[in-house]
Amino acid sequence: MTRTEPRTGRGADTRVAIMTAAERLYAEHGLSSVSNRQIGEAAGQGNTTAVSYHFGSKATLVRAIMTRHSEHVDVIRTRYVEAAGDSTDLRDWVRCLLRPVTEHNAALGVPSWYARFAVQVMTDPLLRTLVADESLTRDSLRRTLQGLGRCLHDTVPPEIRPARAEMARHLITHTCAERERALAEATAEPGTSWERTADALEDALVGLLAAPTTRR
Amino acid sequence: MTRTEPRTGRGADTRVAIMTAAERLYAEHGLSSVSNRQIGEAAGQGNTTAVSYHFGSKATLVRAIMTRHSEHVDVIRTRYVEAAGDSTDLRDWVRCLLRPVTEHNAALGVPSWYARFAVQVMTDPLLRTLVADESLTRDSLRRTLQGLGRCLHDTVPPEIRPARAEMARHLITHTCAERERALAEATAEPGTSWERTADALEDALVGLLAAPTTRR
Question: Which residues does chain B have within 8 Å of residue A210's beta carbon, measured at their own beta carbons?
Fold first, then answer.
């Protein structure tokens, strides 16, 4: 479906330029409002077919952008997972889930667009599946979810756990996007940082995931 | 900015038709990708300026759609707030926050678009402020937030409470939008209902809001 993917040289530079432009445009305007032509122009490509030449479909482009970030997230998460070992403390596994995301966002500097781009992808009915599939191939995420599952095993009924995991995902994704937007638009409260956002999210996620269930 | 707003007769019918079409189109395609012309066409208006004639700006149209829903949410919430009285049980106030939203969504039937429309509005940098201002004029919401504040007063530090409230809002908004989408696309798990979604959210929100804070 796509051309061969050069890892170095001018082709690689063009791919990166297109991904960078697409991420920003998708984050600001939504996946459906941005054309390949606009992305090509923003990436400084004179050829109006540059995007389809290098990526084929929008799905391939979106996936390539997500993969570029998730590789970095995975490196950080692997470190957290190794530190967590066989911990049975829920907080350790919440850190494995959360901190790689906030640390990656922090590393992108200000302004960044990844967190808002991720919201667009997560709320797209088709693309979200594709991305969810990709991230589950990551050993570090699989081990994190297993760790969380073990900690909740005795307290949260099995039929409730997937809904809790989904809510945790919403909370991380949307809180990060808000933070990124506030930082980019310089509307963030003084003292706002990814570190403090992560601290607040960590406490809230522990509370959310471990909340007693009231059966009705 | 807008014309006089007829409450009855053909003008009122046209306004409702436009609001209904706009809500669906905005929910499915995002606020920025939908033109007034598309809304007019979907609402069966031959005159291409019908939307601007009846609503003036996009902000006015969006606000009118939100108000139509929030009036119903407010009626339900007022009932919950009166039942809560001067309760000091956090769960009672979480119910006041949550249940009017899920009950209103349930009352809309399947398919509905309001929950996904609300996500678009909440993630729009400009329109979100306008809507937040409007909902805070509702006495029922003000009393709910006060009730929540009283319950968290001794356990959650004051500088943490606004972030927790924001996270609660994210969780309700996005979980409802997901549920609505799954119901509309018939991809929901068997047995999915707004009632069960509300039960799961209620437990999670209590856990999130009351989570112990670890100071660093």
Answer: 207
